[in-house]
Design goal:
The chain has ten helices and no strands. It has 196 residues and is an all-alpha fold. The protein has a domain of 133 residues: Hypothetical protein af1432, CATH 1.10.3210. Helix 2 runs antiparallel to helix 3.
Length: 196
Amino acid sequence: MKTHCIDDIEKDLKECLNEERFFHTLGVRECAIFLAKKYGLDPKKAELAGLLHDCAKCLGQDELRDLIEKNIKDINKNELKNYKTLHAPIGAYFAKTKYGVDDEEIISAIRWHTLGRVNMTMFEKIIFLADKIEKNTRDLNYRREILKILEENEGEYGLDKALFRCFEETIKSLIQRKLYICQVTIDVYNWLLDKI
């Protein structure tokens, strides 16, 4: 299957996502390209991953759960306890089946952009960060803080420090909102703590 062209994907996403989610998606694309160039990764791949990262976000919880049950065999049951992350495995599935993406690095980055995972690749890290710090809808003070961490620390070590800061905030937020903390999130936090 041939990957759809960027313009067609953007047009489709504009129709299926709400206005704020689409604006966020454009921000993630821009930030993903910036981070890819900064870290010597493929900006075209980053653009595609950034555009498609939330392609399943328009679906309701029941539809996402149904699609996961029918199509995703490697899901950890703990992932199903927080509705905010259900779109990620289906987004990866849609990237492959609906949009024709056959690049496993892109699919994996979409799959793990919400929870992260232990031993994330640099590409997965930049897509994760782009989702957290894009300038269109994210808190600008938080964005500046993460960008400062990236500027003050070289290479992958800087990415790891920035990711760790994101996981600190994510865990605090989940606790404040009394939402389930997936074991994967705790594992990634501990993995990053060991690295920095």
